Amino acid sequence: MPAHLHILGICGTFMGGIAAIAKSAGFRVTGCDAAVYPPMSEQLSRLGIELTEGFGAEQLSVAPDVWVVGNVVSRGNPLMEAILDRGDRYVSGPQWLAEHVLAERHVLAVAGTHGKTTVSSMLAWILECQGLRPGFLIGGVAQDFPVSARLGESRYFVIEADEYDTAFFDKRSKFLHYRPRTAVLNNLEFDHADIFDDLAAIERQFHHFVRTIPHAGLIVANGADGALERVLTQGCWTPVERFACATGWAVGTPGSDGSFEVLRAGAPVGRLRWQLLGEHNQLNALAAIAAAANVGVAPADAIRALGTFSGVRRRMELRGRARGISVYDDFAHHPTAIRTTLQGLRRASNKGRILAVLEPRSNTMKRGVLKEALPESLAGADLVYVYSAGLPWDAAAVFASLGHRAHCFHALDALVAAVASDARAEDHIVVMSNGGFGGVHQKLLEALAREQAA
């Protein structure tokens, strides 16, 4: 019989991805989570994976060969306590993946504060377009693939390399388990204030990551990022190619249609014509093209593939239009991501206003660690609506510098009503949150439609 895994925290994107990959690799997989709900529950059910709701100690009767523990699980969890008391074998998700899937693969790992999901999706799509059928595990939904994780059919495996900690018993960053041969260092800022004290602590983890990359590999690094340069100067034993700098991969002449020339050491290698917005996505593309070149994909072929790239859900995803008003969903978790998204939309749109709707929901933003940077990050919006329920800091005081442009709401229905009332034809409403935000996107579209009917 195949080895049996029981995955704790299976409905998270990462652990659910591990479940799908393990099932494809021939393991018997079951799992549990505090809340078993769509879409992950539906994806896992389609794979024939049996799910249990909750972390009750009675699940010891499942008796798997190994318990695979997600970082949502902490001491005091009833099932985990029972596993420890009985002395059963358990491992973290990243460790299991490294030992059973990544060990024999050429791993292409994408690390950074911003853009990990997008660059990973771009890179997987480039390899797919070359017929390489890579495996991948991505922390989001790439619109060109029906799944966020798969085992793949080649030696290549693309993984979103997260710096968040591994498990309650392993406080190292997840990416230290992956041992890539090709690594992207996309950017580095302070984030995850719930586990890191300061930027230096994150830089230390990134340098541990650098130490795992072989001399025969390649690091693709953002040459305009000072924090990454500090990491590399601590010691680097691997060749480095840089992007976002004149001596490496760079953005050349832009076109009025959103296209741009791709340069390598100052020489043009092709023009990318695509549908994505913003300078940040241009840099994401450079990183993906450079990483793909390391496994033999010609830049011209990578550029051609990205010309058909459809993007990632929740990254400026158009959710609908009503009354001539566009409503977008954007996975905003940090002031820099907010600023670059709004800048990209502003450059691309010559009509209408930008109405930014923000839920400061990430651990870092909820704690107020970066709250002083939020007003400046939203300066590119014409009007700002902040959902302030549950925040331990005074949102009205923080956003007072934006004057009449900023409005704070403790009630979601009041926020929706205000946005729908203020919006007019050709406006762009950008909803920014790293959570579900109470289904606000659909509520806005329905409210806009009611305004039209009235």
The rough form would be described as globular
SS element count, helices: 15
Strand numbers in spatial order across the main sheet:
8-7-9-6-12-13-14
- The beta-strand count equals 23
List low-pLDDT spans.
none
Mean pLDDT over the full residue set: 89
* Biggest sheet overview: 7 strands, mixed
Based on CA atoms alone, the radius of gyration comes out at 22 Å
What is the helix fraction of residues, given as a range?
Answer: 25-40%
Main structural class: alpha/beta
What is the distance, rounded to the nearest whole angstrom, between the alpha carbons of the first and last residues?
A: 64 Å
- As a percent range, the share of strand residues is 15-25%
What's the short story on this structure?
This protein is an alpha/beta fold and 454 residues long.
How are the SSEs placed, and which strands pair?
Elements: E1 4-8, H1 13-24, E2 28-33, H2 40-46, E3 50-53, E4 66-69, H3 78-86, E5 90-92, H4 93-102, E6 106-111, H5 116-129, E7 135-137, E8 149-150, E9 156-160, E10 165-167, E11 170-173, E12 182-185, H6 199-211, E13 218-222, H7 226-233, E14 240-243, E15 249-254, E16 260-264, E17 267-272, H8 279-293, H9 299-306, E18 317-322, E19 325-330, H10 335-348, E20 354-358, H11 363-366, H12 374-377, E21 383-387, H13 395-398, E22 406-409, H14 412-422, E23 428-432, H15 440-453
Parallel strand pairs: 1-2, 1-4, 2-3, 4-5, 6-9, 6-12, 7-9, 12-13, 13-14, 19-23, 20-21, 20-23, 21-22
Antiparallel strand pairs: 7-8, 10-11, 15-16, 16-17, 18-19
Helix pairs in contact: 5-8, 5-9, 6-7, 8-9, 14-15
